[in-house]
Amino acid sequence: MPALLSFRSLFCFAFSLTLLACATLGRAPAQSRLQGKYPAGLDHYQIDLDGQGRKHGLERWWYENGKPKSEAIWRSGVRDGAYHAWYADGTSWYAGRDSAGTPVDTLQFWYPNGKLKSRSVFVAGAPVSLVTWDEEGLTGPERARRDAEERERIAAAQKRMAAQHRADSLEALEGPRRRALAAWTMAVRLKVETYWSLPESQKKVARRTVARIGVSPSGSLLSVSWPEKSGSKEFDRHAERALSKVKRFPPLPPEFNAAPIEIRYAFTTPGKAQPRKKLILRDPTRAKED
Questions:
Q1: Long-range pairs for 173-176 at CB < 8 Å and ≥24 separation?
Q2: Per-residue pLDDT reduced to its tens digit, 8-48
Q3: CB atoms within 10 A of CB 48
Q4: Which residues of 255-279 are buried (b: 16+ CB within 10 A; e: fewer)?
């Protein structure tokens, strides 16, 4: 015999002593015993009976591997005392206590992994409380809360993925068009700046005038109007002169599918600083400002 016993062995030994004590204390002795063995000779079951053939005393069952399967105490055909059952590996399955066939105290069930599955408390045969756990050790409310949090995480991840997919799709569709437009805008600005200049007297006051220009796919100016004036006829005249000298812009990029566009070109001066020219572009489907 090993020098030390495991906790489980001590528990089973103590439980068996309790069953034996309860089976003999205050009860008439069993009149006979049913016994069965496995083909290998190991015990299969032992059931004590009274003179009328009813279970009376200790009932024990074993697995074929020799480990105990269940133990219970009976009195005149009804369970009366502690009972316990185990899985084939020795892990507790369930345990409780009856009084003259009526559940009392606590009834507990375990999962095969050893985690508690449920705990019921009985008073005079009636259950007064029940707590259940899943195989991870979570109660129903804890599991519901964790599942809700998991669903929220999944939904947030799906939302992020959908947003990224939309952004990627938009970039695939609009990216080449946007880059082509930026390059064309720079070419237009460089051409207009060739003719745009102000006398020093006009640079001292902040002014702004805006031209609306229709541009054909070949770059020719289809129309010019001035929706916004600076308030200075001389400033506006310089802007008109610069634009009249341009004659033609660079051809529109092929990404515009040979459709005319409308641009808004802003001639500005911030005051004492150098003039800043702002080009505002619009095509048939959307407006752009650079």
A1: 176/255
A2: 444 444 445 454 444 444 455 668 999 999 999 999 999 99
A3: 21
A4: ebeeebbbbbbbbbbeeeeebebeb
- Model pTM score: 0.47
**Which domains can be identified in the chain, with CATH numbers?**
7-137 (3.90.930.1), 175-289 (3.30.1150)
